Amino acid sequence: MSEQNLPPTIFHMLEKNLGKNIRVILDTSYGFEGRLSAVTRKPAGIWLSNAEAIILRATIAHPIPQVASREDRSEIFVHLDSVKRIEVLHTSSRR
């Protein structure tokens, strides 16, 4: 039987970004930013180091949500069931 070309799973895509800064959106106005330090399959989740909890705000004038406030968290586990969106950040995006 020939080897099938299976599409990459979310775990493969996350593992490619280990060590990069990411933003994890859990709700329309809440999420976390930090360095992706580990990806686990059981339970399905990610570990963030140097993490910050962030509050996102959008207005009529600026409909794309912007970070309104931050609070330091050291290390955090985020279960993938609660994640709406994951963004890989460039170094200039994090303040």
Report on the architecture of this protein.
- β2 (30-41) and β3 (44-57) form a beta hairpin.
- This protein is mostly beta strands and 95 residues long.
- The mean pLDDT is 89.
- Strands 1, 2, 3, 4, 5 and 6 form a six-stranded antiparallel beta sheet that branches.
- It has one helix and six strands, in the order αββββββ.
Radius of gyration: 15 Å
The tally of helices reads: 1
| Share in β-strands | over 45%
Uncertain regions spanning at least 5 consecutive residues: none
Give me the count of strands.
6
Helix content: under 10%
Q: What shape does the CA trace take?
A: globular
Mean pLDDT: 89
Question: Biggest β-sheet: count, sense, barrel?
Answer: 6 strands, antiparallel
Which structural class best describes the helix and strand composition? mainly beta
- How do the SSEs run, as a string of H and E? HEEEEEE
Please describe the structure with a list of short key phrases separated by commas or semicolons.
mainly beta; 52% strand
Outline the fold blueprint.
Blueprint: H1 10-16, E1 21-27, E2 30-41, E3 44-57, E4 66-72, E5 75-79, E6 85-88
Antiparallel strand pairs: 1-2, 1-6, 2-3, 3-4, 3-5
Summarize, please.
With 95 residues, this protein is mostly beta strands. It has 1 helix and 6 strands, in the order αββββββ.
